[in-house]
Amino acid sequence: MKNARFAAWLLILGLVTALTSQAHAQFSIGPLRQLNSYFQGQPNTITATCAVMNCTATPMPIFVPTPLLVQCPKPAGYFCDLYIHLESQDTTLTRNDTGLFRFWVDNAAATPGPVDALGYFTWDNNDPDSRIAAAFSHSYAVVAHVYNLDNNQFHGVEVDVNCIDASGNGSCTASTGFSSLEVNIY
Predict the structure, then answer these.
(1) Nearest one of 64, 65, 79, 73 to 144, comparing CA atoms
(2) What percent of the chain has pLDDT over 70?
């Protein structure tokens, strides 16, 4: 009877662990050896906007080409870790709205991130002074595990700007200016 209860307890513990969101889990990786680096930069204003009450804008890619194709130089069946670092001058966010960056790898949220389940990081949230503030910069980095289905597979990395009409006034706008992206492969 003890063994049956213990087995049931292990099964429940395993299920809880498997079902618990990994987006909020702390992680440590290393030591690692860097295999490749990719860089993108752009000087243009990129704007995401929507015009319906409580809307979420369509994510707008900050860099072209999108996605940036990065190679995991390992055989099929192996993993690589991507370190994705964004530096961005954020020039506009409508008052009391939410400014977001989306970190997307192979058409899904960068995991383990840290980002939310949709790949978002909030860089400004409901700030009453956001419309009158001078341009300011944000830096944020995430980690993504990628799995090679083919030898030396390429994986797509996309970083977007976005906004949410958190104020409920019927619109939001978020813009980035000078931006750089660094992707290191481990």
Answers:
(1) 79
(2) 83
